[in-house]
Amino acid sequence: LKHQKLRRIMQTVENVTSQHGDATLLCEKWDVLILVITSLIFLLGFIGNLITASKVIIEKKLHKPVPVCISCLAIADLLTLCFQYARVPLSHCRIEVSISTRETFLNLTAIMVHSSAMHIILLALIRYGLIVHPFTMKYWLTSGKVVIASLSFWLLSLAMGLLYGLYNRQYYLGNIDEHTDAIVQLTIALYILIVPICFFASLYVVEMKVMRKSLLPEKSFYIKKISKMISLIMVLYIAFLAPYVIADSLRLLYMKEILSMDQRRFETMKNVMFNLARVFILLNYSINPFVYFLFIR
């Protein structure tokens, strides 16, 4: 009986394939490999972020500004990870969805991505405060203020998502051409990458200037540990998001005919770059919990 059921399923697949041709197979071999890799990353990231957020919420001893900020980032990363992972089969498999569904999905993804980036900035600000104003921050910064800052960033991300939604509507209505869209997508990628970097770099320069002039005793072991953790998170953030910026840049350069090569070669290169970018961006939202447990035990 089992063999008969299996034979019927295989026959159904063959019928669908014969009706639509080989080109309509849901996923190619290379796509399946990408799906397997991204699924493993997603699973690890989902569990890691969920444990991180839950641990901080449940354990009262972790109800401190830095762990609470980490929990807020973990929640943002968890939601972003889910939406970014869901984009993988949509990009690699021939799954038909309505334009309205695609628009809604992209708009929600934009909100999550922006929120995650804003929480990276929040971590950079806390790092700055701990290093430059350690005594003031000890009494001024509270878990409640971190939560309020997190909610403010979510509201800002919602506003940015609505703006992106208005743009998407015009794009799907055919009012925006592919060249313009390539420029907009690159601009968004640069914004998500560069804004946190600029905040971090600017604050770092100020930190170094203040520390050179300061007569305060050497930073405590805890502050050093937190500073290193946040610095590592920033470095990984840059490394994992850079491939998307590179891929979008190459696409725009080709469209502007600055990058000259035959179309087939370019399509191969573009597919490889965007495949790497999708893997790396999932790593970005999955790796942070392991960084937390490395520095905070």
TrEMBL record:
<dbReference type="GO" id="GO:0016020">
    <property type="term" value="C:membrane"/>
</dbReference>
<keyword id="KW-1133">Transmembrane helix</keyword>
<feature type="transmembrane region" description="Helical">
    <location>
        <begin position="106"/>
        <end position="126"/>
    </location>
</feature>
<feature type="transmembrane region" description="Helical">
    <location>
        <begin position="226"/>
        <end position="246"/>
    </location>
</feature>
<protein>
    <recommendedName>
        <fullName>G-protein coupled receptors family 1 profile domain-containing protein</fullName>
    </recommendedName>
</protein>
<feature type="transmembrane region" description="Helical">
    <location>
        <begin position="182"/>
        <end position="206"/>
    </location>
</feature>
<feature type="transmembrane region" description="Helical">
    <location>
        <begin position="32"/>
        <end position="53"/>
    </location>
</feature>
<keyword id="KW-0297">G-protein coupled receptor</keyword>
<feature type="transmembrane region" description="Helical">
    <location>
        <begin position="276"/>
        <end position="295"/>
    </location>
</feature>
<dbReference type="Pfam" id="PF00001">
    <property type="entry name" value="7tm_1"/>
</dbReference>
<dbReference type="GO" id="GO:0004930">
    <property type="term" value="F:G protein-coupled receptor activity"/>
</dbReference>
<dbReference type="InterPro" id="IPR000276">
    <property type="entry name" value="GPCR_Rhodpsn"/>
</dbReference>
<keyword id="KW-0807">Transducer</keyword>
<keyword id="KW-0812">Transmembrane</keyword>
<feature type="domain" description="G-protein coupled receptors family 1 profile">
    <location>
        <begin position="48"/>
        <end position="292"/>
    </location>
</feature>
<dbReference type="InterPro" id="IPR017452">
    <property type="entry name" value="GPCR_Rhodpsn_7TM"/>
</dbReference>
<keyword id="KW-0675">Receptor</keyword>
<keyword id="KW-0472">Membrane</keyword>
<feature type="transmembrane region" description="Helical">
    <location>
        <begin position="146"/>
        <end position="167"/>
    </location>
</feature>
